[in-house]
Amino acid sequence: MKTDVKDCGSEKKLFFNRETAEKIASAVGTPYYLYDEKGIKNALAGLREAFRGLDFKEYFAVKACPNPYILKVLKDAGAGVDCSSYTELLMAKACGFRGADIMFSSNVTPAEDFELARSLDALINLDDITHIEFLEQHGGIPETVCMRYNPGGDFTISGAIMGAPGEAKYGMTREQILESCRILKGKGVKTFGLHSFLASNMLGNRYWETLSEVLLRLAADIKRETGITISFINLSGGIGIPYKPTDKPVDIFKVGETVEKKIGKICAEEDLPVPAVKAELGRYITGPYGVLVARCIHKKDIYREYVGLDACAANLMRPAMYGSYHHITVLGKENEPKTKVYDVTGGLCENNDKFAIERSLPEIEIGDLIAIHDAGAHGFSMGYNYNGKLRSAEVLLKEDGTFKLIRRAETPEDYFATFDFPGAEIKL
Question: Is pTM, for the whole model, over 0.85?
Answer without folding.
Answer: yes
